[in-house]
Inverse folding.
């Protein structure tokens, strides 16, 4: 029964955790490149160099001493985001929408006193949200105004983001992560956000995964998650594809937000992207990764050629044809 | 240009699924293990199956001596290696007395001596004895001893007269003829009636043992009187006497009361050979003595190896068995810890069971050795929950990381203290041993547990907690399994094979069991 289950997963081309680690992350992601993506400050500097749009970086708090100087920096900012530079899973992020006499107004409308705000910065610096628990820096960056395209399937003021898996510079799979009430407005699947697959060929959403089950409607808004046409789809794929050249990582996840005014904005890169995207797309990654391995060298020449190849080869439904023929 | 270069590095040549760079080192480690184990078995004569044959007994001697003089001493015959049983472990409780061991021929005597006290002095001796059924002790035949000193010249020549006609017979026949004579029966080729009648008188006059020894001496059969114990469970207050006669290259055992031959000499435990008393007190009075014999229940493996450790010729000098006893215990456990790590790897990478931290369950498992599993798990869960409640409260105080962890650490120590005190009141050693649980690990676990509940929900956190405790219990079960401990202790090179397995597991790129559940909705048919 167990072996049968394993065989079935294999036939569907599901990528498991062990093979992702040994076969892709360890094989194609140089350890030296990890800091580029683990530290958001470095990612931002790199993206700026490559002309990739990012949320504007206002200020980096690097030590407890500079917390005192923060009010001067924040004085001119009406709205901004505070996040840990080395955070993971969306923890430690606070969105500030405005300010009042008593303190800052957060996204959800709560008021955060200056003391609480400073405590939060200090917590970030002491590494509570950091990947390895070491010292960290706090980033003050521009607030994103999400494109209204996902309004019907987003809980309140949450910000949906688009995750694209890029293998050898080829975008192989994508999903949009939609915040829910359970995820507290955060776009993280393990916190209860839902992830809707995206047809790579057209940029139209498919069904979604919610806690490893397939759903067709958003649990809070009850609107269907599929059939939404993502704007700037080619631009998204192109930018994701360029992330390979930018970082040298052969297997990465690129996270974008669609800004109302600026279009796709790169939020962060991930050298160990998760596997739930396969559920969202109802499709195994292995099939697509193997297919990419077999592509002609010419495909890999430019980001444009890689995107064009990916759109053609990873069109929705094409995998099942492949795996179906395998079964014969 | 840059793109092409990058791409070349990414070419699927030697795709990880195809090559197995872990196989060679694993095979090398396995081979090394085999070589070392074979070396020990073939060159150093280690047993292939480390199971000891024979039986194991626990001997307890309680002696009460009431001193009468200024100086009193007790001499007690102790079981000896030279006689035919392996003495595996000995403990002596000397009380006020000084103790030393005196060797006399094949005998060992424990001598307790000291200044007299007016009340009875208790002396205790404890030994674990391993008796091997077919262990030839002396290969060379023993020398013929003198006649017993109680026999005068005339009686000696009378004994010679009785046995005169038997001198040409084979030793076995001679032996049977002497036994028959001792039973006052006239067997084949008997001596003259006159000689026999006179001998009967002599035999009645003397101690039967002395009479028997004289006849065997006269018949040219080496013989000796032995005092010892019957190897059977129970309390004995008098030692057993028997006569050992050298016939056909082995000792026959003769009962001096019935003149029957003991069918199973292994049922006897010799203590003093050659007429020495088993117990002798000078300057005092023997108030009480009893020998208690019980069947030993501990694994016979243990005995075997502890014996090896003491016999210099049998063993590689580089064996862990040469370590002082107090350090050996540590290594018995340490050598099994890699297996625990292997199990953790297995559970995480093949089963997909989450645990707090990587080696945390290992450390908890080590602590279980003192607290036991039931109390260990109870303490772990209890402190975790108390810690969680405290951590939730601390969250409102907005403490910085390090001071916050310090507070939890203090709480953990406080919980330990309370548990130890409660354990003391209830007389539960398991609770008092709480201090051996690694408190730093528990502190970090509380923090992780809290963060996991906050970030991933209660379900995930409980899965990790159950996973951790489960791995701890399994690991404890393995590291406390004695046969495995001893196997690894005697063949420490086996850890290399464990490392080989770890390497192979490190190359496992298949699915995890948990992924069957995780991807259960993935039908691949949409």
């Amino acid at each position: 029964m167990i072996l049968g289950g394993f065989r079935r997963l294999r036939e569907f081309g599901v990528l498991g955790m062990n093979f992702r680690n040994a076969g892709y992350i360890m094989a194609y992601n140089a350890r030296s490149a990890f800091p580029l993506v683990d530290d958001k400050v470095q990612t931002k500097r790199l993206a700026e160099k490559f002309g990739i749009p990012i949320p504007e970086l206002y200020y980096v708090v690097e030590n407890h001493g500079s917390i005192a100087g923060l009010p001067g920096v924040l004085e001119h900012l009406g709205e901004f985001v505070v996040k840990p530079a080395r955070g993971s899973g969306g923890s430690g992020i606070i969105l500030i929408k405005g300010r009042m006499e008593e303190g800052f107004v957060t996204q959800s409308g709560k008021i955060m006193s200056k003391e609480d705000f400073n405590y939060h910065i200090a917590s970030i610096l002491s590494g509570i949200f950091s990947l390895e628990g070491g010292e960290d820096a706090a980033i003050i960056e521009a607030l994103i105004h999400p494109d209204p395209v996902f309004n019907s399937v987003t809980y309140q003021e949450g910000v949906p983001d688009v995750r694209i898996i890029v293998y050898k510079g080829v975008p192989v799979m994508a999903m949009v992560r939609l915040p829910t009430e359970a995820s507290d407005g955060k776009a993280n699947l393990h916190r209860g956000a839902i992830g809707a697959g995206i047809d790579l060929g057209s940029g139209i959403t498919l069904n979604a995964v919610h806690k490893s089950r397939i759903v067709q409607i958003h649990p809070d808004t009850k609107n269907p998650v599929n059939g939404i046409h993502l704007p700037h789809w080619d631009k998204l794929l192109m930018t994701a594809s360029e992330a390979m050249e930018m970082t040298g990582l052969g297997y990465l996840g690129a996270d974008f937000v669609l800004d109302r005014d600026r279009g796709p904005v790169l939020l962060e890169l991930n050298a160990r992207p998760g596997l739930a995207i396969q559920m969202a797309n109802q499709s195994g990654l292995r099939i697509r990764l193997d297919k990419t391995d077999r592509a002609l060298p010419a495909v890999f020449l430019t980001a444009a050629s890689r995107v064009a190849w990916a759109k053609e080869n990873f069109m929705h439904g094409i995998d099942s044809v492949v795996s179906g023929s395998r079964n014969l | 240009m840059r793109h092409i270069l990058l791409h070349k590095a990414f070419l699927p040549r030697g795709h990880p699924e195809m090559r197995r760079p872990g196989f060679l080192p694993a095979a090398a480690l396995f081979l090394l293990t085999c070589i070392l184990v074979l070396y020990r078995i073939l060159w150093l004569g280690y047993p292939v199956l480390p199971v000891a044959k024979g039986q194991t007994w626990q001997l307890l001697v309680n002696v009460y001596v009431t001193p009468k003089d200024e100086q009193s001493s007790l001499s007690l015959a102790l079981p000896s290696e030279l006689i035919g049983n392996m003495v595996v472990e000995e403990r002596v409780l000397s009380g006020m007395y000084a103790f030393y061991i005196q060797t006399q021929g094949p005998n060992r005597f424990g001598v307790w001596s000291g200044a007299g006290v007016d009340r009875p002095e208790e002396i205790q001796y404890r030994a674990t004895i391993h008796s091997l059924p077919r262990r030839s002790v002396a290969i060379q035949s023993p020398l013929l001893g003198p006649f017993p000193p109680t026999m005068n010249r005339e009686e000696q020549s009378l004994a010679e007269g009785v046995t005169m006609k038997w001198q040409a017979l084979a030793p076995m026949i001679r032996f049977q003829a002497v036994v028959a004579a001792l039973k006052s029966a006239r067997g084949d080729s008997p001596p003259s009636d006159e000689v026999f009648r006179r001998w009967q008188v002599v035999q009645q006059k003397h101690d039967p043992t002395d009479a028997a020894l004289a006849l065997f001496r006269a018949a040219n059969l080496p013989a000796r009187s032995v005092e010892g114990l019957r190897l059977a469970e129970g309390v004995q207050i008098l030692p057993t006497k028997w006569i050992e006669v050298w016939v056909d290259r082995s000792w026959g055992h003769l009962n001096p009361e019935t003149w029957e031959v003991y069918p199973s000499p292994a049922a006897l435990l010799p203590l003093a050979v050659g007429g020495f008393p088993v117990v002798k007190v000078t300057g005092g009075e023997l108030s009480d003595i009893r020998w208690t014999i019980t069947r030993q229940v501990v694994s016979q493996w243990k005995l075997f190896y502890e014996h090896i450790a003491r016999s210099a010729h049998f063993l590689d000098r580089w064996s862990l068995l040469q370590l002082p006893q107090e350090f050996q215990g540590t290594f018995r456990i340490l050598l099994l810890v890699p297996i625990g790590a292997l199990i953790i790897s297995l559970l995480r990478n093949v089963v997909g069971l989450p645990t707090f931290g990587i080696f945390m369950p290992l450390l908890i498992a080590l602590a279980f050795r003192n607290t036991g599993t039931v109390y260990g798990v109870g303490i772990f869960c209890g402190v975790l929950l108390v810690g969680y409640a405290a951590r939730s409260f601390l969250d409102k105080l907005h403490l910085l990381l390090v001071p916050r962890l310090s507070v939890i650490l203090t709480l953990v120590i406080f919980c330990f203290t309370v548990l130890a005190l409660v354990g003391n009141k209830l007389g539960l050693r398991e609770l008092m041993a709480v201090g051996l649980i690694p408190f730093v690990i528990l502190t970090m676990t509380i923090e992780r547990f809290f963060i996991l509940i906050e970030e991933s929900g209660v379900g995930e956190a409980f899965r990790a907690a159950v996973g951790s405790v489960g791995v701890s219990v399994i690991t404890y079960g393995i590291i406390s399994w004695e046969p495995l401990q001893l196997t690894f202790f005697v063949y420490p090179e086996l850890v290399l094979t464990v490392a080989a397995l770890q390497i192979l597991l490190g190359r496992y790129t298949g699915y995890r069991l948990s992924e069957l559940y995780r991807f259960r909705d993935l039908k691949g048919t949409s």
About this structure: The two ends of chain A are 22 Å apart (CA to CA). The first strand of chain A starts at residue 57 and ends at 61.
